[in-house]
Write a structure and sequence with these properties.
Blueprint (H helix, E strand, L loop, with lengths): L8 H10 L11 E4 L6 H8 L8 E6 L2 H5 L1 H8 L3 E5 L17 E8 L3 H10 L8 E7 L4 H11 L7 H7 L3 H9 L4 H27 L3 E12 L2 E11 L7 H13 L6 E2 L19 E2 L4 H4 L11 H18 L3 H18 L3
The protein binds S-adenosylmethionine.
S-adenosylmethionine binds next to helix 2, strand 2 and strand 4.
Length: 348
């Protein structure tokens, strides 16, 4: 099975996020990609201006048959490139390429193994600061598997693993608990989701631990590719000093900023002629839902009173109201009501 839009629609959507326009001021100078046979990421990167003929492309492929043809694909589009035919773990990133890497889409679609983690650790200083690196991994969906993987990935670093696990408890399940267990199948479904979320957090912890620089989690998207649960994790490496509270910060970032509904949601246009939902012009049929509370970094009701938050809410409400052709005051009221509701659910 290939990776085209038709064969793997979710893969295509994730690729669109990872290679979205405007991430760089100009085309990258040096990139690391895992383009596979067809190089769909290369095609999109060129289209969106992240890459151009002068970009130095380091293409990595562990499958020798796929790697054999990669040179042809690259020579059509780039003046300079390097094909690493082997696992990324054996790529000496400091020895190839004319400069540090300023864009990377490491589309593994597999587990974050200790070997990959070691490679990231060894070469994290080869990535330019303040640019985004996108990773895709398989979201390990068994708690036991997750524990083993995280223990293996960063053996001595997680002393308080139980506490972190406790911190990872998923909203979905806690909501079920507070509302009472309604039915077993719903409960099972929710618990399965919980484990995936925990696994995703584990991957974030492992990344944070292996990258020996401060990183910010920009986006975490859970998606299903064929039959497996996957995750896209976009991080920015910064120059700030790493602190002991970083692990806590990951959970906070994940809980507070991205939200559990950060998976790709489908919004298929309604079929019936009845009551139609309003679709914003130009909006795709899918989107990442980010709660308003998380968008504006609102943790308590007091935050709603902050002048900067008030101003940002007004600006945002005005923009949305204009698109929807509705009263901006009403839109603002709706948004605030939504935030208040979500604060109530979260018990704040
Ligand atoms: C998901 S595909 C890439 C798809 C492509 N980025 C796209 O957008 O269509 C991942 C490719 O990377 C290769 N790969 C996965 N893990 C690897 C690793 N650790 N080292 C080298 N290649 C790897 C796989 O063999 C596969 O061809």
């Amino acid at each position: 099975m290939g990776y085209s839009q038709k064969e793997r629609p979710n893969k295509a959507r994730v690729r669109e996020y990872a290679l979205a326009k405007g991430q760089l001021e100009r085309a990258a100078k040096c990139v690391v990609l895992l383009p596979a046979e067809k190089g769909h990421d290369i095609e999109l990167g060129l289209k969106n201006g992240l890459l151009n003929r002068n970009t130095f492309v380091i293409a990595v492929e562990k499958n020798p048959i796929i790697a054999k043809n990669m040179g042809k694909l690259l020579s059509k589009n780039f003046n300079n490139f390097h094909v690493h035919a082997g696992p990324i773990e054996t790529l000496k990133l400091d020895e190839v390429g004319p400069c540090k890497v300023d864009y990377a889409f490491l589309d593994f679609c597999g587990n974050l193994t200790p070997q990959i983690a070691d490679w990231i650790d060894q070469y994290s200083n080869q990535f330019v600061s303040n640019n985004v690196i996108h990773f895709t991994f398989k979201a390990i969906n068994r708690k036991k598997q997750f524990q083993n993987s995280i223990i293996k990935t960063c053996p001595e670093s997680i002393n308080n693993i139980d506490r972190h696990l406790e911190n990872c408890r998923n909203n979905l399940v806690s909501e079920l608990f507070t509302n009472g267990k309604k039915n077993q199948s719903q409960y099972n479904r929710m618990s399965n989701k919980t484990n995936i979320i925990i696994s995703i957090k584990a991957i974030c912890v492992a990344l944070q631990k292996t990258i020996d620089r401060e990183i910010i989690f920009d986006r975490i998207i859970k998606y299903r590719d064929t039959t497996a649960e996957m995750v896209l994790i976009s991080v920015t490496i910064t120059d700030k000093e790493k602190t002991e509270t970083d692990i806590e910060k990951i959970f906070f970032d994940y809980d507070g900023k991205v939200g559990y509904n950060s998976q790709i949601r489908y919004k298929t246009p309604p079929k019936s002629k009845g009551k139609r939902k309003k679709y914003l012009p130009g909006r795709e049929v899918y989107k990442v839902e980010i709660q308003h509370r998380t968008r504006f970094n609102i943790k308590t009701r007091k935050d709603l009173e902050k002048p900067a938050v008030k101003a940002a809410l007004t600006k945002y409400a005005n923009e949305i109201a204009k698109i929807l052709k509705m009263d901006p005051v009403k839109k603002r009221r709706q948004i605030i009501a939504g935030i208040n509701r979500s604060l109530t659910v979260a018990g704040r």
